[in-house]
């Protein structure tokens, strides 16, 4: 890989020349102009801004940055999406969101600006009683004077939004969106663990398909060289296994042909820090790997024939393997996704419409508690390990004891009972039961 053949080197040189020739006029023009707004380009210079219908487009035409509203939402966000795909689908596949937790209301959208300041900061401003209020900011600054005309921001061919400034003809990066990913692990983006700061990379799912704010699932990189999917910052239900030099232990498919992804690159440092990334074999192919609102990490690739995205990889493989996907008091099945337990109803039916089931179900009528309540039996239910091994688990000889334990305490909501059908044991077949207090998550029908 390090030895570049001569013809290829020549080609690189030609490409470099073309680049300089075609972009020199653009540069001159921008330096001499003082207008605040700009047309579609990949670059914004100090003092320039985007307003509602203006965008930046990466030089290869693959990505576009600007204001967007997800689905039928009335809220505005600054994001980056696949440009050609959006033109075909009439729908944006967003790979990065700036103000995910600070949306702009429709009324404020007309006066809002996404502006590159002379101090190296990139801010999203709204106009409130004739003063500009920042809604979101990169909080970045140049190392030089506060009024630095060399500051610029470029939307790269890989979707990385980079703010830089130059001194002594050398450009240095001040801030880049690849250091602040939202839910997407794009090709070329580096994730990993810093063993000095003890911080690992983290992606967070969207709340639902119309709300990019922080959702309940996160994708985290740990010190042991694994990536993990976590529910509500507390329960790890998926782990990749540790990096063994060629692949992550539970992701052996990385070791065999992976046509669309040309290489996986794991770089480790002496201090125990590491970074992981992957590249595309065909750079123009739209491909994204992201943490879906379903709690699954998915790789999708654009199919020109189908004119739609195709899922080429997902972890966990099955939706019901995702913890809490159906919220409380609901069961997951692959055919029918989420269903409320009998006697329960959807807590937020509107969210279910956006494929966000995490609100779960609530009882239709409240319990009387020890006054005529009875249990409904459900078979073939698998409980998450967390419940089966919790402190509330009892070892009993008959199911009735489990029921009694639950009835005796008003905060008990359900119990689960499993017989150990180990055929060889003739004397005392042991049984276990889990008594569930509070809410009950992560049940699956099998
Ligand atoms: C933005 O574009 C939309 C659709 O083309 C148009 O209806 C709207 O008036 C434009 N808004 C502004 C502020 O130019
Ligand atoms: C910028 O700083 C503000 C105030 O400290 C903080 O709330 C905000 O999250 C920061 N923005 C980013 C993108 O980190
Ligand atoms: C920075 O300098 C330019 C030109 O010298 C001037 O127009 C602009 O107002 C200055 N900006 C700030 C924030 O001082
Ligand atoms: C997630 O955790 C927070 C605090 O740790 C808790 O208040 C919240 O109820 C949890 N969410 C769910 C859906 O259980
Ligand atoms: C990470 O840092 C700790 C000290 O903070 C060190 O003990 C440990 O060996 C480092 N990990 C690796 C894998 O080098
Ligand atoms: C690369 O991907 C683009 C976009 O899908 C496609 O048009 C082109 O034919 C591909 N090139 C090769 C060499 O496969
Ligand atoms: C019922 O169970 C809850 C949760 O385990 C416990 O805190 C409480 O003390 C119990 N109440 C009684 C009356 O046993
Ligand atoms: C079932 O029996 C096996 C072997 O006797 C034991 O290892 C396991 O823990 C038992 N499971 C339960 C749920 O009691």
From TrEMBL:
<dbReference type="Pfam" id="PF01453">
    <property type="entry name" value="B_lectin"/>
</dbReference>
<dbReference type="Pfam" id="PF08276">
    <property type="entry name" value="PAN_2"/>
</dbReference>
<dbReference type="InterPro" id="IPR003609">
    <property type="entry name" value="Pan_app"/>
</dbReference>
<comment type="function">
    <text>Involved in sporophytic self-incompatibility system (the inability of flowering plants to achieve self-fertilization).</text>
</comment>
<feature type="domain" description="Apple">
    <location>
        <begin position="369"/>
        <end position="446"/>
    </location>
</feature>
<dbReference type="InterPro" id="IPR000858">
    <property type="entry name" value="S_locus_glycoprot_dom"/>
</dbReference>
<dbReference type="InterPro" id="IPR036426">
    <property type="entry name" value="Bulb-type_lectin_dom_sf"/>
</dbReference>
<feature type="domain" description="Bulb-type lectin">
    <location>
        <begin position="41"/>
        <end position="176"/>
    </location>
</feature>
<protein>
    <submittedName>
        <fullName>Uncharacterized protein</fullName>
    </submittedName>
</protein>
<keyword id="KW-1015">Disulfide bond</keyword>
<keyword id="KW-0732">Signal</keyword>
<dbReference type="InterPro" id="IPR035446">
    <property type="entry name" value="SLSG/EP1"/>
</dbReference>
<dbReference type="Pfam" id="PF00954">
    <property type="entry name" value="S_locus_glycop"/>
</dbReference>
<dbReference type="InterPro" id="IPR001480">
    <property type="entry name" value="Bulb-type_lectin_dom"/>
</dbReference>
<feature type="signal peptide">
    <location>
        <begin position="1"/>
        <end position="22"/>
    </location>
</feature>
<dbReference type="GO" id="GO:0048544">
    <property type="term" value="P:recognition of pollen"/>
</dbReference>
């Amino acid at each position: 890989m390090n030895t570049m053949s001569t013809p290829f080197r020549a080609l690189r040189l030609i490409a470099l020349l073309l680049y300089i020739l075609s972009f020199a006029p653009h540069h001159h023009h921008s330096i001499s102009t003082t207008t605040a707004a700009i047309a579609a380009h990949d670059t914004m210079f100090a003092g320039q801004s985007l307003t509602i219908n203006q965008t930046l487009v990466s030089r290869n035409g693959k990505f576009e940055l600007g204001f967007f509203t997800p689905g039928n939402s009335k809220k505005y966000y600054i994001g980056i999406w696949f440009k050609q795909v959006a033109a075909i689908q009439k729908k944006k596949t967003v790979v990065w969101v700036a103000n995910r937790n600070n949306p702009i209301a429709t009324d404020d959208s007309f006066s809002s600006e996404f502006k590159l300041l002379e101090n190296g900061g990139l801010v999203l401003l709204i106009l409130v009683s004739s003063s500009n209020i920042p809604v979101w900011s990169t909080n970045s600054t140049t190392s030089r004077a506060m009024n630095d005309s060399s500051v610029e921001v470029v939307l790269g061919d890989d979707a990385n939004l980079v703010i830089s400034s130059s001194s002594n003809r050398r450009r240095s990066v001040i801030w880049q969106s690849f250091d602040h990913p939202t839910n997407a692990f794009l090709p070329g983006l580096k994730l990993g663990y810093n063993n000095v700061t003890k911080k690992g990379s983290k992606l967070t799912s969207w709340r639902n398909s119309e709300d990019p704010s922080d959702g309940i699932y996160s994708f985290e990189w740990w010190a042991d060289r694994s990536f993990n999917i976590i529910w509500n910052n507390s329960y790890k239900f998926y782990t990749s296994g540790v990096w063994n030099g060629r692949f992550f232990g539970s992701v052996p498919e990385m070791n065999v042909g992976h046509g669309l992804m040309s290489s996986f690159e794991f770089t480790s440092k002496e201090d125990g820090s590491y970074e992981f990334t992957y590249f595309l074999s065909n750079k123009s192919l739209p491909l994204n790997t992201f943490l879906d609102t379903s709690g699954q990490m998915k790789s999708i690739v654009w199919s020109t024939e189908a004119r739609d995205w195709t899922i080429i990889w997902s972890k966990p493989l099955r939706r019901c393997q995702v913890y809490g996907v159906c919220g409380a008091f609901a069961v997951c099945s692959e055919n029918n996704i989420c269903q409320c337990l009998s006697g329960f109803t959807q807590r937020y039916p509107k969210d279910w419409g956006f494929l966000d089931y995490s609100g779960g179900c609530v009882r239709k009528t409240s319990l009387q508690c020890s006054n005529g309540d009875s249990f409904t039996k459900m078979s073939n239910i698998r409980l998450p390990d967390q419940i089966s091994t919790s402190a509330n688990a009892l070892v009993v000889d008959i199911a009735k004891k489990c029921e009694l334990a639950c009835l005796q305490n008003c905060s008990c909501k359900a119990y689960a009972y499993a017989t150990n059908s180990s055929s060889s044991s003739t004397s005392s077949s042991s049984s276990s039961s889990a008594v569930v207090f509070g809410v009950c998550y992560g049940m699956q029908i099998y």
